[in-house]
Amino acid sequence: MVLSLHVILRWLLLFSFLVLSGALFAHGVDDNTRQFLSQNQGVAIGPFLYIGAKHMVTGYDHLLFLVGVIFFLYRPKDVVIYVSFFTLGHSVTLLLGVLYQVQWNAYLIDAIIGLSIIYKGFDNLGGFQRCFNYQPNTRVTVLIFGLFHGLGLATKLQEFQLPQEGLWQNLLAFNVGVELGQFMALMFILLAISLWRRYESFLKFSTVTNTLLMSAGMMLVGYQLTGYWVY
Which of 45, 85, 127, 157 has its CA 20 to 30 A from that of 5? Predict the structure, then answer.
């Protein structure tokens, strides 16, 4: 059964609305988590695993970027390679950023993360070839943007002034939680994309999907830059 244009657009718009409404606060921390991070003392492997997984599952900016990364990857080997580059990047800056207190303005970091979403949508649309007759090394760019995604996480964690006692154990647990959350989210994303690829509408509406992806990134960039200048 071929999905109609009306149905496809309706679901894409609904998806875009839900994602954008959450993406603006993708690095937000709920009150319970905030209270725990502010008061925790010593090693707490379980809670940090949970917090890391929850942050990734609800981190729409990370997930939007990953959707762009894997959108046209058909072979499992390629998915593993690109996700591994992203994982390596954000793991390095997350761990080293907190341990060595490396941080940047949170609004600017999140704006760059928004740019990473725009980049993947533009790349998926063949924009670099059409506009510049040039194709960036996609693996390197995924790694670089992964570094910024991890720095965003590190900057957020440093706001809570985590105690030094048990810090590296808690950070490692948080990072493992992030990877578990990423794995769970990717399972659903890959399943949805794989099912959609069975229909002719996948290629037909890939332009619409990646345009919406770019729009989400633009809104995120605009929101974060506004926050930077206002606050």
Answer: 127
Residue-number span of the structural domain to which 114 is assigned: 45-158+179-230
Cα separation of 146 and 141, whole Å? 8
Question: What is the tens place of the pLDDT at every residue in 155-184?
Answer: 988 888 888 888 999 999 999 999 999 999
Tokens of 169: 């154990």
Q: With respect to residue 217, please indicate whether it lies within any of the assigned structural domains.
A: yes
Give the number of other CB atoms < 10 A from CB of residue 16.
Answer: 19
CB 86 within 8 A of CB 79: no
Contact criterion met (CB below 8 Å) for 27 and 147: no
Average pLDDT, rounded, for the chain: 85
Sequence-distant (≥ 6) Cβ neighbours of residue 180 within 8 angstroms: 49, 52, 53, 56
Number of domains the chain is built from: 1
Record the tokens describing residue 226, joined without a space.
């506004």
